[in-house]
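About this split. The held-out portion is used to measure sequence recovery: a designer receives only the structure tokens and must propose an amino acid at every position. Recovery is the fraction of positions where the proposal matches the reference. Here is one held-out target exactly as it appears in the evaluation file.
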């Protein structure tokens, strides 16, 4: 279940990254005034890295956030266990 949840978050990150890449690509076409869109080869060389970067960046960001969240959760659990262990030692 945990892995499926992580995959869902990563998929959401990838979709958001792709959306940002498409938005940036459209803005670049708007800024160049259509000169870039007239050349199919040049538009592919511009589109592929931007869209690929959006996909990879979104997935990586989601994975990084998941890792940070789990690490914080593990630290909290460890601190609670240590606090309980110290409490038991003091009661003796």
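Reference sequence for scoring:
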């Amino acid at each position: 279940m945990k892995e499926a949840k992580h995959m869902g978050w990563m998929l959401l990150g990838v979709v958001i990254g792709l959306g940002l890449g498409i938005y940036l690509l459209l803005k670049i076409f708007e800024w160049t005034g259509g000169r870039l869109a007239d050349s199919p080869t040049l538009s592919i060389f511009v589109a592929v890295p931007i869209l690929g970067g959006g996909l990879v960046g979104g997935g990586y960001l989601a994975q990084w956030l998941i890792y940070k969240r789990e690490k914080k959760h593990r630290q909290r659990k460890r601190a609670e266990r240590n606090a309980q262990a110290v409490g038991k030692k003091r009661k003796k």
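Annotator remark: The helical segments are 2-32, 35-38, 40-91.
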